[in-house]
Amino acid sequence: MALLVLVLIVILLARLISGVVSLFGSGRHTTLTETSGKSSPSVSPTPIPPARCAYGNRLAAFRGYDEWQVTLVDTRYRLPRAYVPPGLKPISKAGFKGSLLVRDELIDDLAALRKAAAKNGTPIDVVAAYRSYDGQASLFKRRTEELGRQQALAKTARPGHSEHQLGTAVDFKSAGQRDVTESWDRTMTGKWVTRSAWRFGFVQSYPRGLEDTTCYGNEPWHYRYFGRTLAAQIHGSGLTVREFLWNEQKRGASPIP
Description:
Blueprint: H1 2-24, E1 29-35, E2 38-44, E3 58-59, E4 77-78, E5 88-90, E6 101-103, H2 107-119, E7 124-128, H3 133-147, H4 149-155, E8 169-174, H5 188-196, E9 202-206, H6 211-214, E10 219-225, H7 228-237, H8 241-251
Parallel strand pairs: 3-4
Antiparallel strand pairs: 1-2, 5-6, 7-8, 8-10, 9-10
Helix pairs in contact: 3-4
């Protein structure tokens, strides 16, 4: 009888210990990676620091049209010249004036962000959206002629290396203004967008003071759409877009078919 009681005690202790381990884990946390409109759980260890900023021409690891949420494009990784995202729609579908294009996936949340900004008394407009490979090549050539190659590299992505080619990057400005500057995040409108955009699925790609991590100069106007779930995850991680996607790439978040 005493032996049976002892065995029961051992079993209960084992279950208790297992429950504690499950609750607190082992220094790892569960994340949700959104790909192809689906969410799949993955375990994220301590973030891997991305490689130092350098120039290369490797194709992005995840470059399928349905992998837009985990596609990393930076100074090293690029999209093919032929990459033209499907389902491009004019921003007028989201209530803005103009014919700039974005992927259809953005329209509803872009409209919601516009309405929320206007309701807050800080209305926004869009100054840039989808840009083709050739369009980016023309822009980079013009910036090189104006600023010199080194300054152009710091401020403008080379063709293939721009998030705008994904069709999910949008440059905002204050409504009624001709353009936007690097101090925009210090204006009332810029401050509101900085605080609020992630709630609508948009994350700032190149924040102030993190140029050595993002590999580009501060662009407080440049936001990339990820969808609300993944944007909240990136925001909560405290990582830049490049850091977050670098880790997704290292984990093999969404293998190319």
